[in-house]
UniProtKB/TrEMBL annotation:
<comment type="similarity">
    <text>Belongs to the LysR transcriptional regulatory family.</text>
</comment>
<dbReference type="Pfam" id="PF03466">
    <property type="entry name" value="LysR_substrate"/>
</dbReference>
<dbReference type="InterPro" id="IPR005119">
    <property type="entry name" value="LysR_subst-bd"/>
</dbReference>
<dbReference type="Pfam" id="PF00126">
    <property type="entry name" value="HTH_1"/>
</dbReference>
<dbReference type="InterPro" id="IPR036388">
    <property type="entry name" value="WH-like_DNA-bd_sf"/>
</dbReference>
<dbReference type="InterPro" id="IPR036390">
    <property type="entry name" value="WH_DNA-bd_sf"/>
</dbReference>
<dbReference type="GO" id="GO:0003677">
    <property type="term" value="F:DNA binding"/>
</dbReference>
<keyword id="KW-0804">Transcription</keyword>
<protein>
    <submittedName>
        <fullName>LysR family transcriptional regulator</fullName>
    </submittedName>
</protein>
<keyword id="KW-0238">DNA-binding</keyword>
<keyword id="KW-0805">Transcription regulation</keyword>
<dbReference type="InterPro" id="IPR050389">
    <property type="entry name" value="LysR-type_TF"/>
</dbReference>
<dbReference type="InterPro" id="IPR000847">
    <property type="entry name" value="LysR_HTH_N"/>
</dbReference>
<dbReference type="GO" id="GO:0003700">
    <property type="term" value="F:DNA-binding transcription factor activity"/>
</dbReference>
<feature type="domain" description="HTH lysR-type">
    <location>
        <begin position="7"/>
        <end position="64"/>
    </location>
</feature>
Length: 300
């Protein structure tokens, strides 16, 4: 039996990070330790648990069965300890030197980050703000490693243990330039499918999206002729052509160069959520960051 009274808690923190990174070098970077120091910690942990814990594999290091059993209980215990230690702490943005790292696609940059940016930077002359392009496939890992503090993403049940808060509900509208030569305020399905459409494909090169899934159920196929990587490019493209696009309503409703055409079907919608990792949930600084977003963003 392990004697908890004589156990160095720093070793358990190292083990928690190693079980996330599966790599001594990356763990050392996260812990702000040298690689030899982490190797020494791992050797002590192996002796403490009488188990290799992590063994070499073709993709870094692979946890043993015991290590896998320890992973979640250890993380829960460390989070509880952190919550206890931070319980009476107060974050003062005027005094603290923080660099906030936020990941988002262009929709959230415009609708959420732009309004909240002034508060985040303005409340402290020491604060910095880094906006990173969101890569959905890497999102969980980036939050787990602390590479980003919060992210804004479409609500997705596959995001596992991440904490979330719904910020708003959005729906798509059919949009074209105001001087489009052949559009009326209202069209039918045949007219809709006959138009030349442009779409956003975040992963690049895709020619179908949520609207196409919906249309397929109606037995309709639209004519998508342009695929672009972001909404900014898409909006600019339809302003300079006779293309149309299904766009989030908040991006186009007040644009004097665009018109919204009534659809012959109920358009798709989505919920935008703020995401963060459970390990940051009780951190006073992180709580302050989330509060700034919630107090500034338009919440529905």
């Amino acid at each position: 039996m392990i004697n908890f009274a004589t156990t160095d808690l720093n070793l358990l923190k190292t083990l928690d990070v190693l079980l996330t990174e599966h790599n001594v070098t990356r763990a050392a970077q996260r812990l702000h330790l040298s690689q030899p120091s982490v190797s020494v910690h791992l050797a002590k942990l192996r002796e403490l648990f009488n188990d290799p814990l992590l063994i070499p594999s073709s993709r870094g290091m692979k946890p043993t069965l015991l290590a896998e059993e320890l992973r979640q209980p250890l993380r829960n215990a460390l989070q509880s300890l952190e919550m206890t230690l931070n319980n009476n702490q107060v974050f003062n943005p005027v005094l603290e030197n923080k660099t906030w790292k936020i990941a988002a696609a262009d929709y959230a940059e415009f609708i959420v980050i732009k309004p909240v940016m002034k508060n985040l930077i303005g409340q402290s002359s020491h604060s910095k703000l880094a906006i990173k392009h969101m890569i959905p496939d890497k999102l969980v890992r980036q939050l787990e490693r602390g590479e980003i503090d919060i992210a804004f993403h479409v609500r997705d049940d596959s995001l596992g243990e991440l904490k979330s808060r719904i910020l708003l509900t959005e729906h798509y509208v059919l949009t074209a330039r105001k001087t489009h030569p052949s559009l009326r305020p209202k069209i039918d399905l045949k007219q809709f499918s006959g138009l030349k459409h442009a779409i956003v494909s975040p992963n690049g090169g895709g020619f179908s999206g949520e609207t196409d899934t919906l249309l397929k159920a109606l037995g309709i196929e639209r004519n998508v002729v342009l695929s672009v990587p972001n909404f900014y490019f898409l909006i600019d493209s339809i302003k300079q052509s006779d293309l149309v696009a299904m766009l989030p309503s908040r991006l186009v409703t007040n644009d004097p160069e665009l018109q919204i055409i009534e659809l012959p079907f109920t358009p798709p919608s989505f919920e935008l959520v703020m995401l963060w990792h459970p390990r940051s949930h009780s951190d006073p600084a992180h709580q302050w960051l989330r509060d700034q977003v919630l107090n500034t963003a338009l919440i529905h």
